[in-house]
Each structure stands twice: as C-alpha cells, then as structure tokens.
C-alpha cells in the first residue's frame, strides 16, 4: 500500500506589491497554520518518506514547518511552480518504491485537480474539498499498489481531507 499526501501551501502574504508571485512569503496566519498543521499531521501519524515541494517561497516556507515528519528525502522542484498535473503525476510515478509515502506540496488549482484526477473512480470527496482546497489543507490518498510507477488517474482512494480551520 502506498500513501500520497497532497498539500496546498499555507496562506500567503499580500503585503508587498513589488515582489513576484514566486517570491511571495507566508502571512502571519500562514505561519500559524503551517505550525498547526505540522502538529496535527504528527498527532495523526501522517509521516512521509519523500517530499516534492514547489520552489516558490511560500511552499518552501510551509515545508519548513512540517519537514520533521520522518522525512528521508526532499526535492525542491522549481519546475513544479505553475506546472501541469501531468508533471506532478510523473514525479509521483518516478518515485523509488522504497518510499512508501510521498508528499506533494504545491499550489491551487493543481492540488485540487491532482487529487480529483487520482481519486476520480471514487465519489467520496468531502464537500469542503470539492468547493475549495483551502490553504494549508492536506488530502490523504491511498493506493492499493506496490509501485509508484503503476499509479494512474482514478487509482487512488481519498482517505481523508484535513484543513487548518478544523483545529481552531
């Protein structure tokens, strides 16, 4: 069994007008929510072996708060910023099978599209996720596969969807 965590970065700051979207940092609320989600993920034993993190500043900052969850390897992927679902799937499929749990930390709308595509055979998506994959939220997807290479759209089963506001 393989587990994929798909997470959207925490809330970004819009205080600075003169920076690019790629350089946009977390807001104070984003920092708080990233810390909160790290605690929640640890309590729920949501550990990952490898993480693929978009190179944008807010995703890298979000990752700093959750990186201690038994991580064996991380890959900051600048090309994951404004990429395609196909590219994210390729990263998943090229993951070595010694890694049983993977984190994708990225942006909307990619995180919701990826989650929906991977779980399209299953109609168990929470209404919250269908409406909005909020900042700091994480989807937990299970695959009845032994190899990441064999993962295809529709193969996943959504096991959970957690967002920071559940824990205020």
In percent, how much strand structure appears in the residues? 15-25%
N-to-C CA distance: 32 Å
Q: What is the CATH class name?
A: Alpha Beta
Please name the CATH architecture. 3-Layer(aba) Sandwich
The run of helices and strands is EHEHEHEHHEE
> How many structural units, i.e. domains?
1
Extended strand count = 6
Overall SS class: alpha/beta
Q: Kindly report the spatial arrangement of strands forming the biggest sheet.
A: 3-2-4-1-5-6
Helix content: 25-40%
The multimeric state of the shown protein is single chain
Description:
The protein has 168 residues and is of the alpha/beta class. The chain is built from five helices and six strands. It is globular and about 45 Å long. The mean pLDDT is 89.
Supply the key terms.
single chain, alpha/beta, Rossmann fold, six-stranded mixed sheet, 5 helices, 6 strands, 29% helix
SSE order and pairing:
Elements: E1 2-8, H1 28-43, E2 50-54, H2 57-66, E3 73-77, H3 85-93, E4 101-106, H4 110-118, H5 127-131, E5 138-143, E6 157-162
Parallel strand pairs: 1-4, 2-3, 2-4
Antiparallel strand pairs: 1-5, 5-6
Summarize the structure.
The protein has 168 residues and is of the alpha/beta class.
């Amino acid at each position: 069994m393989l587990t994929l965590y798909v997470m959207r970065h925490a809330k970004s700051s819009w205080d600075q007008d003169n920076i690019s979207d790629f350089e946009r940092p977390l807001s104070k609320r984003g920092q708080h929510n990233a810390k909160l989600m790290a605690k929640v993920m640890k309590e729920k034993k949501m550990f990952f072996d490898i993480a693929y993190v978009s190179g944008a500043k807010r995703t890298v900052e979000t990752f700093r708060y959750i990186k201690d969850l038994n991580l064996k390897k991380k890959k900051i992927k600048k090309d994951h910023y404004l990429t395609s679902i196909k590219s994210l799937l390729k990263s998943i499929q090229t993951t070595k099978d010694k890694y049983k749990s993977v984190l994708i930390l990225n942006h909307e709308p990619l995180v919701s599209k990826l989650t929906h595509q991977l779980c399209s055979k299953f109609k168990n998506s929470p209404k919250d996720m269908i409406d909005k994959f909020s900042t700091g939220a994480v989807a937990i997807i299970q695959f009845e596969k032994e190899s990441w290479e064999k993962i295809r759209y529709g193969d996943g089963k959504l096991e959970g969807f957690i967002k920071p506001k559940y824990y205020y």
